[in-house]
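Quick illustration for those who missed Monday's session on complexes.
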Amino acid sequence: MTVTRFAPSPNGPLHLGHAYSAIVAHDLARERGGRFLVRIEDIDGARSRAELADAFRADLEWLGLEWEEVAPQSSRVARYEAAAARLRELGLLYPCRCTRAEIAAAASARGPDGPVYPGTCRSTAVGTAGSVAWRLDVAEAMRRTGRLSWVDEVRGEQVARPDLAGDVVLVRKEADTPASYHLAATLDDAADGVTLVTRGMDLFAASHVHRLLQSLLGLPVPVWHHHALLLEADGRKLAKRRGSPSLADRRRAGEDGRALAEALRAGRLPAGITLSEGLHAEP
Ligand SMILES: [Zn+2]
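Prediction with zinc ion bound:
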């Protein structure tokens, strides 16, 4: 059975791009007689706001979607810690205290998420007292798993290239944010029985890393469906900080959410918004 999910973070309101992503995941499950899950990704420490999760539910209902809600990330922290401990035992994590500025200054390559961490702390004895991030030794992990591949149902089979992102952080420095997106989302999708990971093309490169984590942690391997992104007229991804109205704004203004969902399904986009084709595709 096909199981998809929409997994928003309650650190800002949902926008049209989120609506599109939720509709894609919802419709793919419905077309195949499967299940559509919603998971609240609320481990972003200080930025997570519980009241926003309630607004998200109202937004999705307003769009005419039906879903099953699974446990929020904040209730799953013990699992993240256990997985990190396992990877540490395997000798695949190392502590790092580098700041963003230090990484930017030392990096010689750019990856999908900005400067690639140059591995400064990989072979250095870094003390683990206080706040420290834990990074995955990607080269060593790839050496142990051998060649991996994964399938995007739109773009076909992909050879996993987690090395393009460098040694990603799996446990964040901030004590109130226990796991990075990579570790938490990979574990959650497995725990929730997600078979079709549906998300925007901006996360295509993350799937290389997630495929590696699945292999290291003995998790089932789903199929992925990376969808196009809604873009602003200047080609930039729609972002909350640029002041476009949120779904909650539209809902409270009396707009018809179901009609909006139908328009998005039919590719009738609001003025000034376009749909990307293969943006941020695999390098
Ligand atoms: Zn470091």
